[in-house]
Every structure is written in C-alpha cells, then in structure tokens.
C-alpha cells in the first residue's frame, strides 16, 4: 500500500478502496468466490444449516495468544460448530479508524487468513468502512458464519437432561485474564495467554462418534457460570458442579486473587462445554484427550432435577454455593 496509515479515501468505494481490497484483503483471503468481487456470495449447502454472527471490539487488539483477527474467525467458527455443524463460509466486515497503522492492519489480516486456513473455512464476501478519527476505537470486525449441520439429533442449549454428565474441554479463565493483564499493563506469569482457537474439528469428531450429544456451548462472555445458567434455564434442569474438578491454571488463580476476579466468570475463547448421557462420558473424554484442544478435558458435574434453572457449586468441604448468572460485564471489550 502507498500509505502507512489507513486514510478515509480507503473507504470511499473508489480507486483507493479497490487498491486496499486487491492489495490486502484479496491477497490474503484469496479464493475463487471472493475473487469474483460480486456484491454477494453464491454457494451450495445441502440440508439444515447453522448460522451465527458476531462483532469483535477486543481491546487491546493484540494480546498473548491471539489478536482481533484470529479471534474473529475462531469466535464465529466455534459458534457455528456448537450446533453440530461443519463451518463452511464466513463473511467479514471491517470498520477502521482513520489513521490506523497499515502495518497493524496487515498483521490482523494475515492472522485472520491463517485462522481461516486452520479452521478449513473460506471468507467469501466482505465489506470495509473507514470512519473519521475518534468515531471508532482503532478497528472493529464483524463476521458471519454458515455451516452444514451433520449431527442428528442436533446439540442445543435446551436439551440438557437429568442424568447427563457435564464435561469441559480445558482450563477456565485464560482468555479473560490475558486480555485484562495486557490492557492494564499488568505483568502476569509468562505462560498465561489466550486460549483462542478453532474447535470445529474436535466438535465434529465428537458428534460423528458419539450417538447423542445433548449440548455444546462455548463459555465466552460471562464464563462458565453464566453459560451454565443459560443452559439450565433453557432446559429447566439443575447443574451440580464439583469445584475441585474444574480445571483452572495456578497462574490464573493467582492473577484472579490479586485482581479480585472469579475465573468461573471470565471469558474463554478456545474451550467448550459438552453435556451428554453419562454412559458416553468416558468415550467423549478419550476423544477430547487425543486432541490438542481437549488434552485437559474432564467431567466437572452432573445434571439433576434438584433445583431446576440453578447452578450449584459443591465445595471441597461439601458446602453448596449458588452460582448466579453474571449481572453485568465483569470485563468489557473482551472479544
């Protein structure tokens, strides 16, 4: 690009816009459908589809373990896959502040391109807007994903059933604490970083080998506690968790203690809940442990009928504590 900053001209729709599209976005997102440069994308998907949209405003845009570009891909791909679907296509829209460094924009685009390849999806259409300085904070990204549902029956947040096992794919709170530490310039342990990752390959392996997964859900904003409250409310069941079974890295426990945060309410961007009949729990854990994104998977609780709509945390001493849904935003602009 001829400029080292993003100019208003790049959002004009004229020659400057065309240069930005061809020399940056097409260069890194290249695929036959996108290269047609139509106003919309044409594609075929057989059967029932899963569709999700999300906007990403994370601050800071670069953090240990990821950035706003890879996060935008991972977040939408994972949401599409939570219905037992194979993600196929993404749309991508950028809103960029005038003066944003072109080198940073290219870093975001390259990261997004690598995440797309890893997930096995294609960005088939998109949009770019440049707004005056101060009208937006650096860069926001919106993505929409579409995928083909292959699970039958389809996992859904209202299908948790009494007797089900509650599994989690790994440690809690990594992403939320990493973003907060980076934003505030707080020095954390070197191995604390975002867990941002595309989970679709592991999720599809589970639904292909397990006869009936009742619920998949990624505990993003609001964390594990809030996500489970959403599930128990939708399914009208109770979830009883064993506190000692919930995996949290010691570094995250320490950081949360210093900052007054609860890791059960911190966002995760590369973990998922799997709720399924207890008889399939061991098989599911074997599949998860064989994948790099599920090596720390474990059973953390069960679904009961004791207190419908509630999440109960059983402490190591046998005490019982109600885990409510997060009231407000514990940490804004986490994704």
From TrEMBL:
It comes from Maridesulfovibrio ferrireducens. This is Hydrogenase expression/formation protein HypE. Residues 162-312 form the PurM-like C-terminal domain. Transmembrane segments: none annotated. Belongs to the HypE family. GO terms for biological process: protein maturation. InterPro entries: HypE, PurM-like_C_dom, PurM-like_C_sf, PurM-like_N, PurM-like_N_sf. Signal peptide: none annotated. Residues 38-148 form the PurM-like N-terminal domain.
């Amino acid at each position: 690009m001829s400029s080292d900053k993003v100019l208003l001209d790049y959002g004009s729709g004229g020659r400057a816009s065309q240069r930005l599209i061809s020399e940056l976005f097409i260069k890194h997102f290249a695929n036959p459908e996108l290269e047609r440069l139509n106003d919309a994308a044409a594609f075929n998907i057989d059967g029932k589809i899963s569709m999700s949209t999300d906007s990403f405003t994370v601050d800071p845009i670069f953090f240990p373990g990821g950035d706003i570009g890879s996060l935008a891909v991972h977040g939408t791909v994972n949401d599409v896959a939570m219905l037992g679907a194979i993600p196929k296509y993404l749309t991508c829209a950028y809103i960029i502040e005038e003066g944003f460094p072109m080198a940073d924009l290219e870093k975001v685009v390259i990261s997004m391109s690598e995440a797309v390849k890893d997930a096995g999806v294609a960005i088939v259409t998109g949009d770019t807007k440049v707004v005056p300085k101060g009208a937006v904070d650096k860069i926001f990204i919106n993505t929409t994903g579409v995928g083909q549902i292959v699970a039958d029956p389809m996992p859904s947040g209202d299908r948790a059933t009494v007797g089900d096992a509650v599994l989690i794919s790994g440690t809690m709170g990594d992403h939320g604490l990493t973003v907060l530490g980076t934003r505030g310039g707080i020095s954390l342990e070197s191995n604390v970083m975002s867990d941002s990752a595309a989970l679709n390959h592991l999720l599809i392996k589970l639904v292909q080998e397990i006869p009936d997964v009742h619920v998949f859900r990624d505990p993003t904003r609001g964390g594990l506690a809030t996500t489970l409250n959403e599930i128990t409310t939708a399914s009208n069941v109770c979830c009883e968790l064993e506190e000692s079974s919930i995996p949290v890295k010691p570094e995250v426990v320490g950081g949360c203690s210093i900052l007054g945060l609860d890791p059960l309410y911190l966002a995760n961007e590369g973990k998922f809940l799997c709720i399924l009949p207890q008889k399939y729990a061991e098989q599911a854990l074997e599949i998860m442990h064989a994948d790099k994104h599920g090596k720390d998977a474990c059973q953390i609780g069960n679904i009961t009928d004791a207190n419908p709509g509630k999440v109960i945390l059983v402490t190591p001493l046998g005490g019982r504590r109600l885990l409510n849904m997060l009231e407000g935003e514990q940490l804004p602009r986490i994704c």
